[in-house]
Amino acid sequence: MGGIQKFSSFEEADDALYCFEPDQEYFERVARLWNFVDRLCPRDYARGIFRYRSIDEANRQAEEWLEEHTKRFQKQRMRK
């Protein structure tokens, strides 16, 4: 599916959000989408293996990384 879709109800639009029987074309579209996202806003991932004492500590670290990435991305976009 590509382009604009029209729906006659919110339920019909909601149903179109999900694909319960994906085919090869679906996976190719998803791959193209994520390739586009990666080119648009590339992310750096921390290298290595990390140990955390709790899931909360791991979540805090992930939030810090996301915040750093967001700030770098915004700063880069402001320069352009």
Question: Can you describe this structure in just a few lines?
Answer:
This protein has helices at 10-15, 24-40, 55-79. It has three helices and no strands.
Q: Could you characterize what this model shows?
A:
- The mean pLDDT is 89.
- The two termini are 33 Å apart.
- The chain is mostly helical.
- The protein has one domain.
- It is built from three helices and no strands.
- The helical percent reads 55-70%
In total, the number of domains comes to 1
Q: So how many helices?
A: 3
What is the H/E string? HHH
Briefly note the structural class of the backbone.
mainly alpha
Write the layout of secondary structure elements.
Elements: H1 10-15, H2 24-40, H3 55-79
Q: Notable features of this structure?
A:
single chain, 80 residues, mainly alpha, 3 helices, 60% helix, extended
